[in-house]
Design brief:
The protein is mostly helical. It is built from 19 helices and 3 strands. It has a 3-stranded antiparallel β-sheet with strand order 1-3-2.
């Protein structure tokens, strides 16, 4: 079983690896020089209304009944999956729970949020669970404590770190009972926190809702600067610029990007050989070694980003979102295309057969390369526009060079892991 990892070896991608690497680095550098020389004033730092969609779309998005119905359906699905995790077939190939978490939620949430906006905020079953508990036990509807001001995204960073560790490190990560244990723990902790701090807990502190909302900053569908604005077609660069810096946001992006790099590294023959040799020579369990390397990569991403941006780290961090989204799509494209349909089928029939075919290598290669390059070019443009608003004109290009060099390195690492390693 190969859940939580891309399907198909890198060697089957019909692209010359060295040429892809060179082209990727050149595209990022050329885009930086182009916008740096031609882009003198910031263009996305102010809110501008987009093109409003039909009023029926906004009414549906604002309908409390529609949201409650969607969340209630998802809550019923959550209960069903927990039942399947502990009482269903413990063979991962015949249990819907592993694919529901690793494929449909973790991977599927990215394209869904990119196209439709912050969908998990609308369908999050824990919001319905919290609302029901508040009603039954007559608890304060807004919680009994205010969220600490310095909390920010730190709960999301810690929650995502726990999830990616489960996804990538333990040998038992695909066992239904193990996955069910994670889901049950996440449900209990997040719901308890939301009862204490109110529904605002979900906005930045719930790992999957905050993750969805950050991806949705790139969606062409969304609202203006306030939720009372109509749903509209908007400029994603303005929405990305509107992401409010908060404590822990750098950590979230470091976990997101660093864990995806680790997933790419851990899927290579080099890692399989090296980790086995290291475990044999040192006596250190492979899972502990993998945990250390995963934490080191996350720390390396955070440290390199802060080194490249200095005092502007918090103000520029949202410009890493396109890079993280692009590499996530590239890395998991084959998994979603192959296992996504089966994951949906297993929700109705846990014994749904395995897929009989794999996506065409050329299609996968095209998605991977385009996603990485577009993500980095969007990141370069967003970073330059943000720098134009924050830095004096005589320092803009020079101060952006370290970040652009870091983006080029990120680009080439991502492409190397996909087409060569």
């Amino acid at each position: 079983m190969i859940l939580a990892h891309g399907i198909g070896g890198r060697a089957d991608l019909p692209l010359p690896g060295e040429l892809v690497l060179q082209a990727g680095g050149f595209v990022v550098l050329a885009s930086f020089l182009a916008v740096g020389l031609a882009w003198r004033q910031p263009r996305f730092h102010t809110a501008v209304a987009g093109r409003a969609l039909p009023a029926a779309v906004t009414r549906l998005a604002d309908s409390g009944r529609a949201r409650l119905a969607a969340q209630s359906v998802m809550l019923a699905l959550l209960a069903y999956l927990l039942g399947q995790a502990f009482a269903g077939d413990q063979d991962p190939d015949h249990n819907p729970v592993p694919r529901a978490l690793y494929v449909l939620l973790w991977v599927g949430l990215v394209p869904a949020s990119l196209v439709l906006g912050p969908v998990w905020r609308v369908v999050n079953p824990l919001r319905a669970l919290r609302r029901g508990l508040v009603t039954v036990f007559r608890l304060p509807p807004d919680g009994c404590r205010e969220l600490p001001k310095g909390l920010g995204y730190w709960p999301t960073a810690l929650g995502l770190a726990a999830f990616v560790w489960l996804e990538l490190v333990p040998d038992a990560r695909a066992e239904p009972a193990v996955v069910g244990g994670f889901i049950a723990t996440y449900t209990a902790l997040s719901t308890a926190a939301a009862l204490r701090y109110g529904p605002s807990w979900f906005d930045r502190a719930d790992p999957f809702e905050a993750y969805s909302s950050l991806v949705a900053a790139l969606s062409p569908v969304g609202r203006g600067s306030a939720d009372h604005r109509p749903v509209e077609l908007r400029n994603p660069f303005r929405a990305l610029n509107a992401v409010i810096p908060a404590p822990g946001l750098v950590a979230v992006l470091a976990v997101w990007w660093g864990s995806t790099v680790f997933d790419g590294v851990s899927g290579t023959p080099w890692w399989a050989t090296t980790s086995q040799l290291a475990a044999a020579r040192t006596g250190v369990p492979k899972e502990l070694l993998a945990t250390v390397v995963l934490a080191a990569l996350i720390g390396l991403v955070a440290a390199s980003y802060r080194l490249a941006t200095g005092a502007l780290a918090g103000r520029l961090v949202s410009t890493l979102i396109p890079i993280a989204v692009g590499y996530t799509i590239a890395h998991y494209a084959s998994l979603l295309l192959t296992e996504g349909p089966r994951g949906l089928a297993q929700l109705l029939d846990p014994s749904a057969p395995a897929p009989t075919g794999a996506p065409a290598p050329l299609l996968v290669a095209a998605i991977q390369v385009v996603a990485i390059l577009v993500g980095h070019v969007v990141g370069v443009i967003a970073a330059h526009d943000r720098s134009a608003a924050l830095l004096p004109e005589n320092r803009r290009l020079a101060d952006q060079v370290p970040l652009v060099l870091l983006m080029i390195v990120y680009t080439m690492i991502g492409l190397y892991l996909l087409v060569i390693a």
